[in-house]
Q: What sequence folds into this?
């Protein structure tokens, strides 16, 4: 039995319709997969970048504290001191707007007092010092080793969040973000934002390790 041209055309159109419908189904499934997978991945990437920026700023704060200590022979007692310092400049970038990348708010940082840092075995502790004399001067730093061989870089600082409240005012050895919750990056072993800290001692330890690495013959 011979097929008429009209029946052949109808069958071809029907097959094309089925193919188009199948293609639309595949595209719909792919769109759903993209909609449910790409945004969370992108959000995680952006969150990781904010964490990296926060760590960078924490290290900048530590360098600012170090510069202040060298100039004034004591620790700063407010963020404003680091912000307004010009000769030498304590903080890079725009210190007037110290935005916390984790919260997106200006000056959303917490000052960390020396006694909020727990002593770690095998490394020097944070200097406690004595009260200084003069306006804007914090305690005079005095090294108080907690064990370990001389010249050996100390262990990473460990923060006691309860001893570092948001409303603290006074000499500080670090600045931490005003944030809580699990982090993607484990910063110095801390996996919660409330435990993140990078102190003046951590900076000195990092510098010592870099110097040791450069002194090793290749």
A:
């Amino acid at each position: 039995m011979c097929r008429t041209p009209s029946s052949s055309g109808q069958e071809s159109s029907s097959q094309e319709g089925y193919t188009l419908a199948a293609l639309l189904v595949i595209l719909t499934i792919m769109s759903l997969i993209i909609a449910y997978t790409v945004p969370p991945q992108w959000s995680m990437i952006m969150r990781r970048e904010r964490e990296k920026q926060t760590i960078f700023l924490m290290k900048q704060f530590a360098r600012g504290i170090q510069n202040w200590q060298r100039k004034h022979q004591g620790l700063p007692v407010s963020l404003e001191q680091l912000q307004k310092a010009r000769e030498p400049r304590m903080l890079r970038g725009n210190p007037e707007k110290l935005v916390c990348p984790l919260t997106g708010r200006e000056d959303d940082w917490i000052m960390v007092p020396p006694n909020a840092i727990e002593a770690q075995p095998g490394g020097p502790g944070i200097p406690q010092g004595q009260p200084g004399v003069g306006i804007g001067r914090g305690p005079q730093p005095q090294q108080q080793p907690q064990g370990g061989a001389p010249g050996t870089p100390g262990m990473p600082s460990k923060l006691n969040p309860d001893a570092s409240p948001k409303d603290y005012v006074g000499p500080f050895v670090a600045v931490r973000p005003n944030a809580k919750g699990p982090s993607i990056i484990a910063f110095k072993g801390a996996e919660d934002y409330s435990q993140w800290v990078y102190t003046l001692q951590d900076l000195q330890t990092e510098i010592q390790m870099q110097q040791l690495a450069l002194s090793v013959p290749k």
